[in-house]
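Why should sequence recovery work at all? Because a backbone constrains its sequence more than one might expect. Tight turns favour small or flexible residues, buried strands favour hydrophobic ones, and helices have their own preferences. The token representation captures these environments compactly. In the example below, the structure is given first.
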């Protein structure tokens, strides 16, 4: 199962109070900055849930 980004809650990387913490925490590079927008690379996600647990906006969930 992969993660889903709620773009309304996320607010893009520039407006993230965690400065893109999810990207920094992802050791599999499943989350990337795509011109200021958070993008998921499904095939890289290993379901560790670090991004979900640490998102300051609660914008990441299981799809």
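From this structural description, the recovered sequence reads:
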């Amino acid at each position: 199962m992969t993660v889903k980004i709620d773009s309304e809650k996320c607010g893009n990387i520039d407006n993230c109070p965690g400065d893109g913490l999810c990207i920094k925490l992802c050791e599999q590079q499943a989350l990337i900055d795509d011109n200021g927008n958070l993008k998921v690379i499904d095939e890289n996600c290993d379901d560790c849930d670090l991004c979900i647990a640490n998102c300051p906006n609660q914008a990441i969930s299981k799809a």
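A few observations help interpret the result. The mean pLDDT is 93.
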